[in-house]
Amino acid sequence: MLINAYCTHRNPPSLEFPHELIGSRDLSDPELAEHLNGFIGFIMQGGEREMTQTLYHVYRHIERVQNHLSLEVEDDHLDAFAAWAWEANAIVFLPDGSVCDPNGNVLVSPEDGGSDPEAQVPYPDDALKRKQAVSQDLHALKLQPYEGLPPVIGENEVDLRSAKEVARRAIALMAVAIRAESLGSGQPIPVEEIRERLPQAFEVLSPVEQDFMNADSPDQQSIINHAWRYECLYVLQWALGHFDELHFPSAICDVPEVAGDILQRDRDEMIAEAQLRPASEILDEVDLHFRLHWIARQASQEGTPPPAGLDIGVIQERRVALNWLIRFENADWDDVDCPT
Fold first, then answer.
1. Which is it for the CA torsion 126, 128, 131, 132, positive or negative?
2. Type and span of the H or E element at 87
3. Closest by alpha carbon to 259, among 226, 239, 237?
4. How far apart are CA 282 and CA 178, in angstroms?
5. Which domain of life is it from (predicted)?
């Protein structure tokens, strides 16, 4: 049988069963990204299919694919293939046009997009355990996360930004937040003064940030948006080990403490010596804020106060930083999305 396996594992295990490998590629092949976009279009029938929970999970899986293998496997060895595919965190595409889980249960039927009741989208063990642990912690706080939300990316899938890139981005956020705060207070700090104090920031400003810093009189919404970046900065400082923990997102960060941490450091040394926390700790916060965001948005849609004093603005900004850290959808800073 010809099988196309789509693995989210960065380094899939070796194929220790009889097979004929037709081809394999990873994200270093620029054609794979285009192929995966086409695959998403296929399962969604060009946007004509109504999104279901299973389709959403398959959609997100395809977005995270890092390796694509085509191989011939005899029927006698399909059980061994299935064991490999679960470990590689792979879904499979079969010659009949169906998208299946490693056991061959249909996730997306070519006829109507339906799925078998027993079909399961694969997730890494650590991602499943993380979702369970976070959900239990939230229930202990009398919060009710939506169980249909998928786990977030696992440790063997994630490709974190480099520590030096994170440190540079933190300094850039400091620069734009300082300007926004000064403009909002009616005592604007000249951009050249900020450039002199934080020259490293101006080497990595995003296009939107560059426009903000270049504008003589930024509009009010732009000022507000960039003042919120203290919350993103706080997350990156935590990821770099500058702070021991992220407090529960029911209030804004301690702005003087956050700003002081950057301004009192030798920024060149900060970049050169930057180190990230373990991926597991970062992913714990990614999962937590994903579920908290859903809870806060649900309350907003229902017109009720967010439970436990959740501040949806704080959560939103934290997720921007966290999703950028884990390269969610491979988005650049200005394009980071935070869906729930």
1. negative
2. helix 78-88
3. 237
4. 26
5. Bacteria
* C-alpha dist (Å) from residue 222 to 95, 100, 178, 180, 194: 51, 46, 13, 8, 18
pTM recorded for the entire structure: 0.94
Phi, psi of 311 (to 5 degrees): -105, 105
Query: What is the residue extent of each domain of the chain?
Result: 2-108, 123-340
pLDDT in tens, 182-225: 999 999 999 999 999 999 999 999 999 999 999 999 999 999 99
Kindly report the number of other CB atoms within 10 A of residue 34's CB atom: 10
List 72's β-bridge partners, or say none.
2, 20
**pLDDT on residue 240:** 99
Taking a C-beta distance cutoff of 8 angstroms, is the pair 180, 229 a contact? Answer: yes
pLDDT (tens digit per residue) in 220-247:
999 999 999 999 999 999 999 999 999 9
Taking the C-alpha atoms of residue 130 and residue 123, their distance in angstroms, rounded to an integer, is 11
Tell me the pLDDT tens digit for each residue of 34-70. Answer: 999 999 999 999 989 999 999 999 999 999 999 999 9
How far is 208 from 167, CA to CA, in rounded Å? Answer: 19
Q: How far apart are CA 119 and CA 101, in angstroms?
A: 6
* Cα 7 to Cα 131, 136, 268, distances in angstroms: 20, 29, 39
